[in-house]
Amino acid sequence: MGRPRDRTIDEAVLSVTLDHLARDGYAAMSLAAVASEAGTTRPALYRRWAGKEELVVAALATVAATSAGEPSGDLFEDLIGELEAFAAAITSANSLSVVGLMLSGTVSPRVLQRYRELIVAPRRGRLTMCLERAVRAGRLPRDADVPLVVTMLTGSWYGYALAGYRPPQDWPHRVAAAAWRACGAEPPP
User: Fold this and answer.
1) Which of the two residues, 103 and 130, has the higher pLDDT score?
2) Digit-coded pLDDT (tens) for 71-129
3) How many CB atoms lie under 10 A from the CB of residue 31?
4) What are phi and psi of 145, to 5 degrees?
5) Torsion of CA 107, 101, 126, 135, to 10 degrees
6) CATH architecture of residue range(s) 7-61
7) d(Cα 21, Cα 24) in Å, to the nearest integer?
8) pLDDT of the residue at 108
9) Domain 68-182 - what CATH class?
10) I need a labelling partner for 163 at 20 to 30 A (CA). Which of 1, 39, 60, 100 fits?
11) Residue 16, class by beta-carbon neighbours within 10 Å (0-12 exposed, 13-18 middle, 19+ buried)?
């Protein structure tokens, strides 16, 4: 059975993996370099993860953990909370660079699929749930194009980044208000 795994090594390795992914890309990421920078060895990595793909997927899963939590009951504020959680996740752990990497076509199909399952789908699901709850409550029209608006929500962050701008401090509130309008309703004051 052996001794228990040292969680601090896991955390260091996963953090360094995200840094290396963002800086070097998937193909150039070296397990030896990750191990060295994390203060451990390649055998220690292989005891935890079967290989590079598994390590990258585990690192991506740490980014996926950022969520706004339980709904508050205020439908507009819940949407803002989800957008705040998205902003926190995308600004941490070089996540924006990882998004670019996922779009580059240089990662394995399995890693891209796991990224979509662990990060993209849950975030889109939570944003969709916020808007659908507002539709069911009559706060947004029944014909609101929720899938399109969800894409616009996160896409606006990427648009700022690609233009070379940092989203404004009040981005979550402003984009939630824009989404409300895009659905055909006036946002709360």
Assistant:
1) 130
2) 888 999 999 999 998 888 877 756 767 777 777 777 788 888 888 888 889 889 999 99
3) 17
4) -85, 75
5) -110
6) Orthogonal Bundle (1.10)
7) 5
8) 83
9) mainly alpha
10) 60
11) buried
